[in-house]
């Protein structure tokens, strides 16, 4: 199972902002991680829409965390940033074209694996994954 870059960047943005006591600019985060500013702009807009961060435009603007890191559940965030958690075709009944879907046991096994994966992510908050040894 693999997270999209969108979810990865969402986590990185939140981790970076959560460690700062002042407003942060997109350019600063892009430079720190070596990520495209354009990609981060989309991520930041979505995180603001979801209520995780607060953004201010103009001179002295930037972003800051809106929800405390201990209240940001990693599993919930991933569910909001991943377009789909359909790891194989047969998970989506509307688009499934697999001819053996009705008699295959793989869907159950992979469903269990996905549930276990998400259960682990549900156990952790942003506070749990903040890097304490890296100085920003």
The rounded Rg comes to 18 Å
Q: Which structural category do the helix and sheet elements fall into? A: mainly alpha
The helix content, as a percent range, equals 40-55%
- Tell me the series of helices and strands, N- to C-terminal: HHHEEHHH
Structure description:
There is one protein chain. With 136 residues, the protein is mainly α. It is built from six helices and two strands. It has helices at 5-18, 26-33, 37-49, 74-81, 106-122, 126-129; strands at residues 53-56, 62-65. A two-stranded antiparallel ribbon has the order 1-2. Strand 1 (53-56) and strand 2 form a beta hairpin. The radius of gyration is 18 Å and the shape is elongated. It starts with a helix and ends in a 7-residue tail after the last helix.
What's the arrangement of secondary structure elements?
Layout lengths: L4 H14 L7 H8 L3 H13 L3 E4 L5 E4 L8 H8 L24 H17 L3 H4 L7
Antiparallel strand pairs: 1-2
Helix pairs in contact: 1-3, 1-4, 2-3, 4-5
Can I get a quick summary?
The protein contains 6 helices and 2 strands, in the order αααββααα. The chain is mainly alpha-helical and 136 residues long.
Keywords, separated by commas or semicolons:
136 residues; mainly alpha; two-stranded antiparallel ribbon; 47% helix; elongated
